[in-house]
Amino acid sequence: MCACEAWLWGVTDLVSVPEPAVAATAKTSTPSDASRAETIVAFRFIELDLLVELILGRLLFDCDGETVRFPRPPTVGVGSAPVRKGIVQLVAIGIVIGVAVTLVAVLFQWLPTSASEEFDRIQDIYWFATWMSVVIFAIVGAVVVFSVWKWRVPPDDDADGPPIHGHTGLEIAWTAVPAILVIALGIVSAIVMSENGQAKDNALQVRAIGQQFAWKFEYPDHGDFSTGELVLPVNQQAQFTMQAVDVIHSFWVPSFGQKMDAVPGIETTILVTPTRTGAFAVVCAELCGLGHATMRAKARVVTEDEFAAWIEEQNA
Amino acid sequence: MTATHPAPDMHEYPAHFEPPRGSLHRTFFGPGLVRGAWMALAGFVLGALLVMGLRAWWSWDPIWTTEVILVVGAMVFAPIGFLAGIGSFDYWLHYISGRPTRPEDHSGHGARTWMDYFRVNTDHKVIGIQYLVTTFVFFTIGGLMAMFFRAELAQPGLQFVDSQTFNGLVSVHATLMIFLFVIPAFAGLANFAVPLMLGAPDMAFPRLNALSFWLLPIAGIMFVASFLAPGGAFGAGWTGYAPLAEGQPLGQTFFNMGVQWAGASSIMTALNFLVTIITMRAPGMTFWRMPLLVWANFTTSLLVVLATPFIAGSQFFVMFDRIMHTSFFVPEGGGYVLGYQHIFWFYSHPAVYIMMLPGFGIVSEVISAMSRKPIFGYRLMALSLLGILVLGFSVWAHHMFVAGMADWLRVPMMITTLLIAIPTGIKVFSWIATLWRGRIHLNTPMLFALGFVTMFVIGGLSGIYLGSVPIDIAASDTYFIVAHIHYVLFGGSVFTIYAGVYYWFPKMTGRMYSETLGKWHFWLTFVSFNATFFPMHYVGLRGMPRRVFDYDSAFADLNLIISFASFVLGASFILFVYNMIVSWQRGPVAEANPWRARTLEWQVSSPPPIFNFDEIPQIVGGPYEYGVPGARHAVLSPMKEETREEVHA
């Protein structure tokens, strides 16, 4: 093992142990440490040791390629029968937990049925994140359950476990793999975000105005009226411009999967492309005072003809 | 010429400045709760007169304004009067005024009777216990509030309370749990354990330490007392978003000012920890030999001193808007509404780590000691804390993905948010690798530590969902968020606090808790916790917004189950309280080191001597060298050992 590994695992104290290192005792390690401690006391006032340790991390001092030996835990051959059995058991527990969590994820309908193009794309990332979570939870759960089941000892046991300080390969793996996973999720999310933010030229302009405790909708391109009911034509992108009269509100239609705060003093926007007709709930999602819970409205998605008829009716 | 100091005259420098105990004069004028009470009252009168005097001088009408007098009299002058009354400033005032300061006779150190816990005490172990008992009192109050509004939420519609009271209950519950339970409970555990682990006799600034504890009940009483204000308690959520908070009744002021006292308390404690950890490590205790609890509190303290001033600022701005008619967050006056959220979350996101990193430290101690193995990848564990510290400051706007902030901020904030999963993942994997091939003692602290690891993974994974902007757009401000924060702060922080309290209980009290009751407590909590909070993910994604007293009847059945489970969760807490109180009084006497742990606090008696160590210990190795033949963490009495060696030679 290289000294860098020893540094990483925090076992540099054993670096100074002369060979044979297997019989490392406090007696042999004390003198060098004591002299080190004296140095630290001497520099305490300006805290040089703090600077050196924190900034340089003793990299310059320890990682000179010198080989370090310290008592290695007794190893068991990977191919041996008990180890094979253990691996099978561990994997079995992992599969059981994974299947259980998968069932929870698929048997319940966690998301409302999508009613917009934007929500369809969001649901794709949702499932990406869900499969990632199922695997990670199954791994952690399996190791915890397996370890406790396999290596639990009675309270009066007074032996110690094997002195395993670390494993560089494993540590690199569980830094790199999650990094790749979350960056992948980040990229997918950024793509969906950008797709969900592409406003078309022919988008239907809708103004959503929040005030304590009701929503008001206006259609600036279709006449000068306002309504408490949101009506949208199906398969036609709508661009909402949010305004708030008094405090912050948040426009949310759970079935569209889109949400945006209406903030006093600024205008915010969000896009929705409804994909099926029907009635949906508009909910205020940001605490806005006494009537926040009841600040709901109805959204109706209709065919293009019905929408034209409705506009006419409103302007009449 | 040699200057000779006059010999200390015992008449001039008596050991006690106060008249003897028991006299009426002493009761009223000696430091203590009685003087605290009347000086608080005097402070209020002084503050009120100051306001009225100034208003009369400028001939403003009316002279009496409730809100201003409340802020100045009741929330600034009265608390200062109280602190002066109980004696927090006595030493400093003596020093400043040139009167002879009291020589340190250690009478303010250690607890000889239970009454010593009710006065200004400079002993870090006493302060640690004061912190813990106080925070658990507020935990009880906050928990009762939660059960109250869960009763309200068992059915759609309003049954028990009006909507202002409901909003008040929700807001005060969150505020108490954050500012009066999780943050100070960790400060309490660390107060007790960190100086011992460093081999130090006390914290660096014991009087400051005492002061920062006594600021805490002031904040807590303010939050709870807001229910008595006309118009009810503050009801804008613990986030207190402007402009809603600016239009709230009087109760909002209690939040604005209470946060200042709680924040001042945590800043002082954090400074104290930083100075203690940097300067008071025993010889040989390099940074890379510090136990991970010390590392965790070091990083947490850095977070606290850097971030906490921001919430103080945000609340002052809101208060100025309310009573001085400024327009920081009033758009009509040129204010910027989202500015509040940016400042608020610049504290409150790091606050999430302030509420989690000390728990990481506790769990590292417990898992290593109970698995009888060195912590896996010690340095990477410490470095990942620093990684979280740095990243933690660059993610605040992920709370604002739907707030209408600048669009370009979303992607960078999403990336940094997701990157935090890496150091956090390193920690989780290292804990489970520490378990691997250990000799696992499955006692109560270990159960809570393992419960923490699994539940925190769920909270972390739901955090990854929320880190992704498109999913967050669908899920933010819903019950999914409520589920996520409770998996992180209950399954995360509270489980680690329980683990820590059980782990150090024998050290603190010198007695052993009941293992059977502890295990019952764990399993009841674990099951009812999941039954309470897991279904919230579902109702949230399906369309139930948070902070509502009324909801769609489609969610009625699940909410009834959630409410029922939350009562079981509340009931499980009774087991804990019973176990703690009875064991503290009559539990079997604990050994000095019941867990055979290697860190320094276990090498002294239980409870530790008043000044912790007879001799400053000499640190000779890492803190977790379980199973390494001959390895030692510390030589407890280096002088004695040297003498012995000489004798042998």
H-E order of chain B: HHHHHHHHHHHHHHHHHHHEEH
The ordered H/E elements of chain A are: HHHHHHHEEEEEEEEEEH
- The tally of helices of chain A reads 8
Major sheet of chain A, described briefly?
A: 5 strands, mixed
The structure class of chain A reads alpha+beta
Low-confidence stretches of chain A: 13-31, 37-52, 56-71
Percent strand of chain A equals 15-25%
Q: Structural class of chain B, please?
A: mainly alpha
**Would you tell me the overall average pLDDT of chain A?**
81
Low-confidence parts of chain B: 1-17
| Strand numbers in spatial order across the main sheet of chain A | 3-2-1-5-8
**Approximately how much helix is present in the residues of chain A?**
40-55%
Largest sheet of chain B: 2 strands, antiparallel
For the secondary structure, the number of strands of chain A is: 10
N→C terminal distance of chain A? 85 Å
Task: Briefly characterize the structure.
The complex is a heterodimer of chains A (316) and B (649). Chain A is an alpha+beta fold. Helices cover 45% and strands 17% of the residues of chain A.
